[in-house]
Amino acid sequence: MSLYGLMAVFAGPEALIAAARGMRERGYRRMDAFSPFPMKDLEGILEIPKTRLPWAVLAGGIAGAALVYALIWYSVEVDYPINVGGRPLHSWPPFVIIAFEAGILGAAFAGFLGVLAANGLPRYHHPVFNAESFSYARGGKFYLLIETADPKYRKGVTRGQLTRLGAEMVEEVEA
Amino acid sequence: MAEASANSPAVLRGRHDFPEISGRIGSIVLGGRLPRHFWTAFLLCFLLVLLLLYSITYLIAVGVGGLGINMPVVWGTMISNFVWWIGIGHAGTLISAVLLLLRQPWRASINRFAEAMTLFAVAMAGLFPILHLGRPWFFYWLLPLPNVHMHWPQWRSPLVWDFAAIATYATVSLLFWYMGLLPDLAVLRDRARSRPAQLFYGILALGWRGSAYHWARYQVVYFLLAALATPLVVSVHSIVSLDFTFAITPGYHSTIFPPYFVAGALLSGFAMVLTIAIPLRWAFSVKDLITLRHMDNAAKLMIAAGMVVAYGYLSEAFFAWYSGEPYERTMMAQRALGPYAPLFWIMLSLNCGVLQLLWFRRIRRNMPLLFAIAVAINVGMWIERYIIVVTGPSRDYLPSAWGEQSLAWLDFGILFGSIGTFFALVFLFIRILPAITIFEVEELAEEEGKIR
Amino acid sequence: MSRVEQGFLSAGALGLVVCGLGVSLDAKAMLSAWLSAILFALSLPLGALTILMVHGLTGGRWGEAVRQPLRTMTALLPLALVSLVPVLIRLDLVFPWAGADTAKLQETVHEKLVYLNLPFFLLRFAVCAAIWLVLTWIVLGTTDAPANSNERNGKKFALGLVLHALSVSVFAIDWMLSLEPEFTSTIYALCEASAEVVGAFALAILVLAARRAVEVMPGGEEDVALSEDLANMLLGFLLTWIYLMFMQWVVVWGGDLPDEIRWYGMRSAGGWLYLLWLLIALHVAAFAGLLSRRLKRSHRGLVWLAAVALAGHFIDIFWRVRPPLFAGGPLALWHDAAAWMGLGGLWLALFLFLLRRPDRVVWWKREVAHG
Questions:
Q1: For A73-118, how does the pLDDT look when each residue is reduced to its tens digit (9 = 90+)?
Q2: Residue B1: is its pLDDT beyond 50?
């Protein structure tokens, strides 16, 4: 039975931030924080890289719009050219409207699927769920996880450091 | 943007702690002990669902002749219901997306049910154009599917744009809503005691664990989805209005329709938000989470949207005269004085008259009165759509062919059936999913320093 | 008066002299050119008035920063109104419905001569001007303090916005739409109002960024630089304008009625087509640029974005107003150059002067301010 890491429980957001900062200063790299709501400060402390998902959204939008516009253009100019109401075959004003809708749809799908893929969700089995204390049932608990894979990780030392940084409880998490 | 000033009520009242917030919101769903009047109301709505099913079956069996429509007015309640419902949906997106972009803290506790309201309203709206087709089973002809006739949809027709717009709107609203739900589903997953509930919320939560890495990406994309939803809302109702303006029928062909329809959508949408929120905060005693501030702001937005709508009325009437076209002028005169005049004046007195009461703070903060005004605006906006739909074709370019349509029982059966179905869905939503966003209220409480 | 202001003033004076020459040569051509220049100059104070009142209603930190340039713009309203007088004297040269032979007008235009006639036109203009002057007086007076409570002025601004919306609509119909009296578009006044807001806001950002390092100024919402907040507002206003203009075009395209589509036909024929492409290119550039966070956060980027948006607004007004009045080849544009020089010189001289001496903006309150 291998160990995945140590999970420390904190009572409030400030305690978690202080502990994350403390562990960072002690040189830990492979750690993760868990909170019931987003905490902006953690991004800087954990040095979370800036996400490139906005580009995926942009690409999705452009792809959706271009595909649909191309489809319409193909249908009116190549596959079935027919004069309707004396309008030009390539009537761009209405076509732009449909392409706009398709662009929004493409961008939204790219964003939604992109964030799931980048976050590795859905993933129903993750080691952190093995921790007894890990639960959002009571709303506001804040967790800091130090992975055993971290080069600085020493079982007793790390536990002691976490306790000194104000953890209510430190638990071993099995992989 | 607006700072809470001294005498405007707070977004969040009282002091809270995290277990209390998640517990109170979560127990509405998981506790399963809903007040008796909840189920009484649901039963009433369920009867209306049955009415809707019966009416639709009748409509399909008999044909659109069962409705009150008649030559030359072949657009009737199906179209006005459609415009009305889609408009109601828009306020939900506005609250959740635009207020997020503008970083308005007061969206936190009402965005969830506003988004749900959007979804259900769009679901209702989507029914009507299809029912109106006459042969609803061929609705897929609107899609560019390969078929034996080798033909394509008519891309220049606003009805095809409508299809694209409504489908996109429904999908994007669903994605946005579901994404906002994920963290709360994780809370319910952890709170649930029974195995079926654990499985249900567990599967839906997709294994969300609140990692800081996840939150970072989540927030960026959630914000982007909001940024996408905003132009989408405007485009959807504009496209709905283009259904009218592309025709050169008197009263239909007017360039102001797109922004004017969008404003009308917001007016009726905020009226519906209040119609749902006022009973909700009373029945589930969440008056400290959904506070007077929310009600007050929604009422103010109604006034703002209502003024734009009034500008639209004025502009339509003036330009009908200013166009110098006899048919435009006649149509407008007939709208005000002809067979539909009573409806026209009721509409004006509700949307332009009753609405003005909201200028007074005392009225905005009197909940029974505000509820009554919201219901009145809902009615007024339905009449507005009906007036727009029917008066144009009834006074067309050929005076010898002028005529009116009536309203048959089927028109009302489908309208009230859809209202009942909408509320039944809202009830089911309150029963099954958290109607108030747990994680955002917790975040808000933390930011405002209201944690015990 | 600084040297720059003196320079602008003398350029303006020179321009006015050339304009006078133009009037003596061909009064109709000169007044037509003057009209499109003054409509641009007037659009800025009107837009500034809108933004100031909206901000007075909603509050928000973005507005505090741009308040000073907007107030200065608003204070130039009287100058712009006075500059309309030459056109008012000879309306018959500019507006087809005011001409001597109404018999030549088409039937639908005949029908609206009850509205489009000289006395009523002048009356409407007087009412609009009075409303704007009162609003200017109120807005400049109440937005004086650095942070005033919205509670007290909320109703005042709401009522002001209602009056402003009506007067801007009447003005847009009278002075712009009725240049081609057979054309009607119910959305036209909204297009004009939103264009005014874009222009005024772009100029305000430009002034703010030209003088100070706005990208590092505090005052944005949390974690966001002020420059980015302002740029996002500009993007919102710009998108509104693009939306309204596109909707007018789509609806007119869909109806394809002769009286309506002719409006677009004239504006995309001959040399005007190049202007239309320029208009589109400027707005595409502004839109694409405003999506980039890097540009929005850099000083030069912001200056460029605001300048492009302002140029787009200028081209927009010129493209909407000028074509029906234009006669002769490209050389006839010297009338326009003279009008821009005269009006622009005066306007800029006064604008810069007031910008440097903000206490002069509310001249009637000077004693109070000092005492």
A1: 998 888 888 888 888 888 899 999 999 999 999 999 999 999 999 8
A2: no
Work out the average pLDDT over B253-279: 90
> Do the Cβ atoms of C301 and C295 come closer than 8 Å?
yes
Q: Which of residues 186-215 of C touch B (CB under 8 A)?
A: 186-190
- Rg (Cα) of chain A, in Å, rounded? 25
Contacts of B40 (CB under 8 A, 6+ apart): none
Nearest to B70 by CA among B401, B333, B415, B330: B401
Among B242, B246, B322, select the one facing C115 at the smallest CB separation: B322
Whether residue C74 contacts residue C139, with contact meaning beta carbons closer than 8 Å, is answered with yes
pLDDT by 10-residue block (mean), chain A, 175 residues: 81 84 83 84 81 90 94 89 86 92 94 91 84 77 84 80 80 80
pTM of the predicted model as reported, rounded to 2 decimal places: 0.91
Percent of chain B having pLDDT more than 90?
Answer: 31
Q: Among all residues of chain A, which has the CA nearest to that of C249? A: A93
Q: Which of B349, B358, B416, B350 is closest to B77 using CA atoms?
A: B416
Estimate to the nearest angstrom the gap between the alpha carbon of C167 and the chain centroid: 14
Locate the domains of chain C by residue range.
3-370
Angstrom distances, CA of residue C24 to CA of B140, C12, C20, C36: 68, 19, 6, 19
Question: C249 touching A, CB under 8 A?
Answer: yes
Work out the minimum CA distance from A40 to partner chain C, whole angstroms: 10
Closest in C58, C115, C257 to B1, CB measured: C58
Q: With cut-offs at 50, 70 and 90, classify the pLDDT of residue B11.
A: low
Write down the pLDDT at residue C216.
62
A-C Cβ pairs (cutoff 8 Å, strict): 8
Size of interface A-B (CB pairs under 8 A): 191
Q: Tell me how far apart the 2 most distant CA atoms of chain A are, in Å.
A: 82
pLDDT at C243: 93
Residue numbers in C near A94 (CB within 8 A)? 250, 254
| Cβ proximity of A64 and A107 under 8 Å | yes
Which amino acid, one-letter code, is at B307? M
- Which residues from chain B sit within 8 angstroms of residue A130, using beta carbons? none
Instruction: From A139, A143, A133, A119, select the one nearest A17 (Cα to Cα).
Output: A143
Distance CA C166, CA A147 (A): 66
C243 touches chain A (CB under 8 A): no
Q: Does C294 touch chain A (CB under 8 A)?
A: no
Residue A46 and residue B224 in contact, taking contact as beta carbons nearer than 8 Å: no
DSSP at B16: B
Classify domain B12-135+154-447 at the CATH superfamily level: Formate dehydrogenase/DMSO reductase domain (1.20.1630.10)
- C47: exposed, middle or buried (Cβ count in 10 Å: 0-12, 13-18, 19+): buried
Q: Considering only alpha carbons, which residue of chain B is nearest residue C291?
A: B227
Question: Measured between CB atoms, does C105 come within 8 Å of chain B?
Answer: no
| b/e B201-220 (16+ beta carbons within 10 angstroms → b) | bbebbbbbbbbbbbbbbbeb
Domain ranges, ordered by start, for chain A:
3-50+124-174, 53-118
